[in-house]
Amino acid sequence: MAILPQILHSPHPRLTAAAASPSRAFCRAPRHLHASASRTRGQGRGRLATAAGASGPGPSSPEPYPSESDDGLVELPLFPLPLVLFPDATHALHIFELRYRIMMHTVLQTDLRFGIVFAGNSGSAAEVGCVGEVVKHERLADDRFFLICKGQQRFRVARVVRTKPYLVAAVHWLEDRPPAEPPAHGEDAEALATDVEALMRDVIRIANRLNGKPEKEVGDLRRGLFPTPFSFYVGNTFEGAPREQQALLELEDTAARLRRERDTLRNTLNYLTAASAVKDAFPSSPSSG
């Protein structure tokens, strides 16, 4: 079944209730790190999720982050969550578990940055994540936090430094690599970005029609972005498919990321076009009585 990206997402960041189980913390750093993360279910977009957590003081002498180790890696506190953060995207978080409240005390007293890694229901977390920088926060009376973070650079975990009182890993930064060979005609990053934007317009137009909204002209989706940041913007709209988002985040080739997004959007457009045709062929009859 085709993946249906959430193109029509709200411009306001949603709030995620964030916690991770200390009993299944990251123990080693193989291909996928092991962790567990929970997310409040049943929350709608824009709603404040609630979760209980014991209060506790922050660390008395926080260490600065990120700090560079002797081998050139950077130490970064990590937060496993059931979401994927992209560069320049924003997420709202509700911090309630003790270990992560301690982490936030440290982060807020240093450089405001921590790493977010996707953790699914299987209890394993991906080794590629994205730095989140706290741009706004509110500390509550019981020591919980509401905060908004913005995605910065991507990273890959090299090894776990420690797991208590919260997870810290040594990471190295990821950047997209230039193509090894000249791309085929129409397959360069700029042309792919143009194709992806056109497909997004069509998906939004038909989705609006199916939802009973007016099929008005879609505005400028790219907003002058270069292909690489635009590919991250598109990936962020695939909100209902976090594993697909994680695959996009891990790619180190802008053109490859845009090609994958183009394929997903084509599948989505085919699905929506068929659904629209069925709706036109079998219009719902007005209710009687």
Described by its quaternary structure, the protein is: single chain
Instruction: Say how many strands there are.
Output: 10
CATH topology label of the largest domain: Archaeosine Trna-guanine Transglycosylase, Chain: A, domain 4
Instruction: For the largest sheet, list the strands in their spatial order.
Output: 5-7-8-9-10
CATH H-level superfamily of the largest domain: LON domain-like
Sheet/helix structural class: alpha+beta
Helix content: 25-40%
Report the top-level CATH class of the largest domain. Mainly Beta
Average pLDDT figure: 80
The Rg value, from CA coordinates, equals 21 Å
**How many distinct domains?**
2
Count of helical segments?
5
Which residues form runs of ≥5 with pLDDT under 50? 6-13, 20-63
Q: Tell me the strand percentage band.
A: 25-35%
Do you know the CATH architecture of the largest domain? Roll
Shape: globular
Query: What does the largest sheet look like?
Result: 5 strands, mixed, barrel
Instruction: Name the helix and strand elements from N-terminus to C-terminus, one letter apiece.
Output: EEEEEEHEEEEHHHH
- The span between the termini is 37 Å
